[in-house]
Please model this.
Amino acid sequence: MINYRVMEIQDYEDVITLWRATEHMSLRDADSRANISAYLDRNPGLSFVALFNEQVVGALLVGTDGRRGYIQHLAVSADLRGKGIGKRLVGMCVDALAEIGIMKTHLFVLNDNHAAQNFYAKLDWYPRNEVTMMTFNHSDNLNV
Ligand SMILES: CC(C)(COP(=O)(O)OP(=O)(O)OC[C@H]1O[C@@H](n2cnc3c(N)ncnc32)[C@H](O)[C@@H]1OP(=O)(O)O)[C@@H](O)C(=O)NCCC(=O)NCCS
Model:
């Protein structure tokens, strides 16, 4: 049986291990323990983990700027995919966002990650082809 609960900073090592083992994850210095700890503090009750035999087998990081929600780093262990874990995690976070009045949520998917795009489309998410992501980097470090 899979259990679900809010992500805590104590989950960090398990979660980062899962993310590192997952394809299409863009992990950066911003994903350090200190940064994730601050992120969870700023966005309480919005990020979730899925547990099987007390092991983290699914995770997603979710926050809000107070106006929109943002999902990042959704991952499910490769050996447990196709069992509804990803769908449940996304459902839990959009419900948690709705409870605090955030009705619209965005996420970024790599252009070549068609599997994730198809997964989200199945969950009624729609692509925003009218938008181009742009970034300003206040550093010479491309990995910040
Ligand atoms: C994308 C991912 C999170 C899906 O997790 P999952 O637990 O396998 O997905 P679920 O079992 O909850 O699937 C939910 C629905 O999406 C469908 N689905 C899942 N993966 C799919 C795919 N690659 N193509 C089409 N549909 C898919 C399922 O069939 C299911 O449909 P149903 O509700 O009609 O049965 C998982 O494949 C993963 O971790 N991928 C690698 C990381 C990644 O790309 N993350 C997204 C970054 S933006």
Summary: The chain has a mean pLDDT of 97. The pocket of coenzyme A is lined by residues 22-24, 74-76, 81-87, 107, 109, 113, 115-116, 118-119, 122 (CB under 6 Å). Strands lie at 2-6, 48-52, 55-64, 69-76, 105-107.
